[in-house]
Amino acid sequence: MKIKLKKPVNRIWAIVWLVDLLFILSCLIISFMANEKIERLYSEQAAKRWQAGDMKFAQVSAFISTDAKTDQTALSNIRTAIMTKLKEDGYSDVNKSGKPLCDAYYMESEQAITAENISVDVTLSGVGGDFFTLHPFPLKCGNYFSDEDLNLDRIVLDENASWNLFGSSDVEGLQVQIGRHIFTVAGVIRVPTDTVESEAYGEKARAFIPYQRMDKVGTEEKNITCYEAVLPNPIKSYAFNTLSSAFGFGEEEDKGENKDVVCVTNTERFDFFNLIGDLKTFKYVSMRKKPIAYPFWENEAIVVEHRLSKWLLFRLILIAFVVITVIVRISIWWIKREKTTFELITEWLDGMKDKRNIKLEKKKEKAKEDSKETEEEQH
User: Fold this and answer.
1) With contact defined as beta carbons under 8 Å apart, do 240 and 93 qualify?
2) Does residue 371 or residue 124 have the better pLDDT?
3) Which residue, 94, 127, 328, 373, has most beta carbons within 10 Å?
4) Is the four-CA dihedral 30, 36, 38, 40 of positive or negative sign?
5) Which of 163-172, 286-295, 347-356: highest mean pLDDT?
């Protein structure tokens, strides 16, 4: 049976409602895609993995210029400041592992790795703390190393370095040389294949060794360029303020930034209001005024953040169209209504009253039937 629309206006509104439906579906699809992109940023999900009980946690990071000369002594002072703040506020023992702090630090240098008379230039990262807890890169073989290992002469290669050196990614236990120091391969991590992740990661081979061994490979200045931590976040921005104060920022200083340090809250960067704020500064995205080299996982997160802010703007435009059409349609109906506002309200109240009376009658009938069945059972 075909439904005939009596007026051309009705046909127009039918098309408008169809467009509204398509816009709503588009918003849902974009939201799903956005959540999927966020979930794939495993280096941004440490707080979720660390979550336990009712206490909320947040992942925070500080990206540091080499001009700041942040060495292990400076790092120790930063950690002490954070632990002192947590202890003063009663949050020093809330981590589920029993450890006082889940944090990591990182630096980079360019080095050559040698194995079996083959030399490969790599970006060598000196890492410490719970680095691979915060950054669980997918493994092709072997495992990670940690500060708690008895033998710190271990190295994690990526696929590029592994294939260039040995022609294989299954090389756990083999040895490589950096300068005059020998390292044993602990594991091999997968090279990213996603477009954004791969672009941020770069084509050059990478390798990771304990920060404590960076001086053994000829690195004269062991300047830490990234510090990260998962901290209690019982109220909004508590973790961020704890980190920024440890780096010497006062409460009045804006956003935990200066020419040498940029502090960010990884956990909240994809929230609605943060993405809205990102839209306001979008035209300045390409301007880097600070001499800070961000690690590849942060560059990837920045690209995704800006992309999601544009997706959010598109969704807001679609939702605005839907809301406007609904308001217009209700306004037209309101103007052309045949009854007064008082009559409409009275009619609605009467309808609600009738529904309530019907429900009461049904309850009374059911009570009578139950009573009758009880009497019959007794007889």
Assistant:
1) no
2) 124
3) 127
4) negative
5) 163-172
Residue 233 in this model has a pLDDT that exceeds 80: yes
Instruction: Give the phi and the psi of residue 63 in degrees, each rounded to 5.
Output: -105, 125
- Read off the tokens for 180: 């005059």
Q: How far apart are CA 252 and CA 241, in angstroms?
A: 11
By the 8 A CB rule, do 263 and 240 touch? yes
- Answering whether pTM is above 0.85, one says no
End-to-end CA distance of the chain: 57
Residue 107: strand, helix, or coil: strand
**What's phi and psi for 315, nearest 5 deg?**
-65, -40
105, 75 Cβ separation under 8 angstroms:
yes
Q: If you compute the radius of gyration of the chain from its CA atoms, what whole number of angstroms results? A: 31
Measured CA to CA, the distance from residue 303 to residue 290 in angstroms comes to: 18
Distance CA 319, CA 326 (A): 11
Q: What are phi and psi of 364, to 5 degrees?
A: -65, -45
Q: Which of 126, 156, 125 minimizes the C-alpha distance to 141?
A: 156
The token duo for 259 is 């020419």
What are the pLDDT digits (tens) for 96-109? 555 667 899 999 99
